[in-house]
């Protein structure tokens, strides 16, 4: 039996929450993040203050658990390696090549985490537009193009940002560069990657808040998004401080660059740890 959609919430053309009115007087609520991370719909029985969950099938649940564990672990390890690279750079216990190698290894884990996050969206259980208040599992896919979905757009921008960071990390191995080449080949991809991370985090906040500023103190998903966005801000601060002056050939502020990277990486590591608990 098809149920009419009672209300749609979101931002602009993006729908992040749908509410159905059920025949028994209750309601069912689909939220994009809740569906793709936990594989559930919220069901409010008539006259009840509390809600219960209606879960997706076992295939979808298994997918979500594995993808979530993989993405979480990748961000934790990547964050730890970036913290190690920043510590080596700050305390002078290794040369430039050592730092670049540690950062590069961390970047590979961030690439992996970004792609697995995108796969979570691509293979999440879906609701049927205009259909019943339930989730449907689709066939496995390695890729999709869905720019009209806010969650897809956010994770795609995140994954793109990790790839741009990879350009910065590879170029860091180059030797004998002029100041102009350092800023063009290393600093510019760093800034672009930070901007993409900030955009992705903003879209994630828009998704979880349904287009309005919010503070969900008891929402694990909100805290994950907020902590990761703080990490993106700290990465941007670090990148701005890492600009090489043409007059002196030195960074604007080495301490801020290193400590900003370390603190930002700590945020992504913490976000990954929290994400381990946001599963079906």
Number of helices: 7
**Overall geometric form:** elongated
Number of strands: 7
The arrangement of helices and strands along the chain is: EEEHEEHHEEHHHH
Keywords:
single chain; 12% strand; alpha+beta; five-stranded antiparallel sheet; two-stranded antiparallel ribbon; 59% helix; 280 residues; 2 domains
Describe this structure in words.
This protein has 280 residues and is α+β, with helices and mostly antiparallel strands. The chain folds into two domains: 5-55, no CATH class; 58-275. Helices cover 59% and strands 12% of the residues. The protein has seven helices and seven strands, in the order E-E-E-H-E-E-H-H-E-E-H-H-H-H. Strands 1-2-3-4-5 form a five-stranded antiparallel beta sheet. A hairpin with a 2-residue loop joins strand 1 and strand 2 (14-21). Helix 3 runs antiparallel to helix 4. The longest helix has 34 residues, at 58-91. The protein is elongated, with a radius of gyration of 21 Å. The two termini are 26 Å apart.
């Amino acid at each position: 039996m098809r149920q009419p959609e009672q209300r749609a919430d979101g931002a602009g053309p993006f729908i992040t929450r749908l509410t159905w009115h059920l025949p028994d007087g209750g309601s069912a609520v689909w939220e994009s993040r809740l569906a793709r991370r936990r594989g559930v719909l919220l069901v409010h029985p008539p006259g009840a203050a509390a809600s219960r969950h209606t879960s997706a099938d076992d295939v979808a649940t298994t997918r979500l658990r594995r993808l979530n564990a993989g993405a979480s672990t990748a961000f934790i390890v990547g964050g730890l390696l970036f913290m190690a690279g920043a510590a080596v750079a700050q305390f002078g216990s290794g040369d430039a090549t050592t730092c670049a190698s540690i950062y590069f290894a961390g970047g590979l884990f961030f690439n992996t985490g970004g792609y697995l996050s995108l796969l979570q969206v691509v293979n999440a259980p879906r609701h049927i537009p205009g259909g019943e208040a339930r989730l449907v599992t689709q066939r496995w896919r390695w890729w999709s193009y869905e720019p009209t979905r806010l969650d897809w757009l956010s994770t795609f921008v995140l994954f793109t940002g990790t790839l741009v960071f990879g350009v910065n990390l590879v170029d860091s191995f180059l030797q004998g560069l002029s100041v102009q080449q350092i800023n063009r080949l290393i600093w510019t991809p760093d800034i672009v990657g930070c901007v993409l991370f900030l955009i992705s985090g903003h879209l994630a906040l828009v998704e979880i808040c349904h287009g309005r500023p919010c503070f969900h103190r008891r929402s694990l998903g909100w805290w994950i998004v907020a902590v990761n966005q703080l990490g993106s801000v700290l990465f941007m601060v670090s990148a701005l401080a890492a600009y090489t002056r043409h007059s002196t050939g030195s960074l604007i502020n080495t301490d801020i660059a290193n400590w900003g990277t370390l603190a930002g990486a700590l945020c992504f590591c913490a976000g990954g740890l929290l994400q381990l608990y946001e599963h079906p």
